[in-house]
Amino acid sequence: MRQDMLLVVDMGSTRNTDVARAIRALGVYSEICNYDVTAEEIAKMPNVKGIVANGGPNDVVDGQKIGLSDEIKNCGLPVFTFDYEDNGTVHPMPKEDEAIQEDLRSFVFDTCKAQANWNMENFIADQIELIRKQVGDKKVLLALSGGVDSSVVAALLLKAIGSQLTCVHVNHGLLRKGEPEQVVRVFKDELSANLIYVDATERFLSKLEGVADPEQKRKIIGAEFIRVFEEEARKLDGIEFLAQGTIYPDIVESGTKTAKMVKSHHNVGGLPEDLQFELVEPLKMLFKDEVRACGVALGLPASMVYRQPFPGPGLGVRCLGAITRDRLEAVRESDAILREEFAKAGLEGKVWQYFTIVPDFKSVGVRDNARCFDWPVIIRAVNTIDAMTAQVPQLDWAVLQTITARILQEVKGVNRVCFDLSPKPTATIEWE
Ligand SMILES: Nc1ncnc2c1ncn2[C@@H]1O[C@H](COP(=O)(O)OP(=O)(O)OP(=O)(O)O)[C@@H](O)[C@H]1O
């Protein structure tokens, strides 16, 4: 490890990640650990320069009030006791809270004498070394979705171990327009990765035929994905490692000793027990913005690194009810038009997520002086900080009119365009 590190010890705060991020924003690497960390464990961590004991409302565990042990207090490292109360609201640490920032800055640099050497160049160099040490001359398998996390893992592993990596990209027929092609172009053609491209469209769509229940659809897609991936894995010889795009929030949200679990951390979970892989998770200490910075530093295209979030079941949950091929095509084509026009209008990166939905009912319209009976396309655009709540931004009317005109002209089977004005709550971001 080339970087100095500060440890954020969770003493019951709800703001551990904010504090860890604030330290990283100063250019110093930080990690969060549990309140019962021992001096011996800390001694094994590389380059720890100081400890932030981060207190807060969750300071009672199993009926006992927790406190920093004498062992840690006397371990020879500077300790800063921090208690950043948040009154129960969730928002990023306010930048204007200069006193707190200043205290932290002074602790990090004046007291701990930490070097501001946390940057992507050092991170990548460190990870390459660690990956090579972990993997040796063995082979690694990666499920590559084309999403930000697995793409950055692929690029990093390619740099570290090159041809020892095999990537599997599954086209389940529910990807956005141009996505599988981009994965093949970037990884196979440009980065010369061993890429197995599986076109499983027919298999997924026939499994989904007539299934209207959203939960059932998600389950079928998830289970079928594991099956396809497993089949490919069994065809390969001598693979001992499975790489995953686990990132820091996945780990933090899996729960600390003082906070309840937000969501379980899975990724390519659900693989059969007899496929025993050791995990390689080189991004597990990065926040999302750092993963993107890492992707840029590794030379991945901006459209991949800054891609908006996309649900695992893909367009399947935007083609409402039982998926049909023609309606799925209408979702894919209208989504492509929406993304193109948002990019032209300079909205890319300004609106957090935007996509289209095609419901499973028709309405009466008129086309070429004759009655038509076609589907509507619903446009959804939202802004959010944490995906727990979301707001609908005010969009330029002319942009919406252009999108509407193009969808009505170019997308088969559509005679109406609607705009979803609902914030979350009460609506969710996706419709299914
Ligand atoms: N179509 C696919 N082909 C190959 N692997 C996939 C595919 N879809 C998902 N995966 C694998 O499953 C993991 C979890 O999928 P999920 O849709 O939850 O994405 P994610 O956690 O946002 O990560 P990413 O940004 O890498 O897509 C991905 O990181 C990837 O390894």
Automatic annotation (TrEMBL):
Per the record, the pathway is: Purine metabolism; GMP biosynthesis; GMP from XMP (L-Gln route): step 1/1
PROSITE patterns reported in the protein's UniProt record? GMPS_ATP_PPASE
Q: Can the keyword Transmembrane helix be found in this entry's annotation?
A: no
Which residues does the UniProt record annotate as the domain GMPS ATP-PPase? 118-307
Q: Does the entry feature the keyword ATP-binding, yes or no?
A: yes
Spans through the membrane: none
**Described function:** Catalyzes the synthesis of GMP from XMP.
List of residues binding ATP = S145, G146, G147, V148, D149, S150, S151
Q: What is this protein called?
A: GMP synthase (glutamine-hydrolyzing)
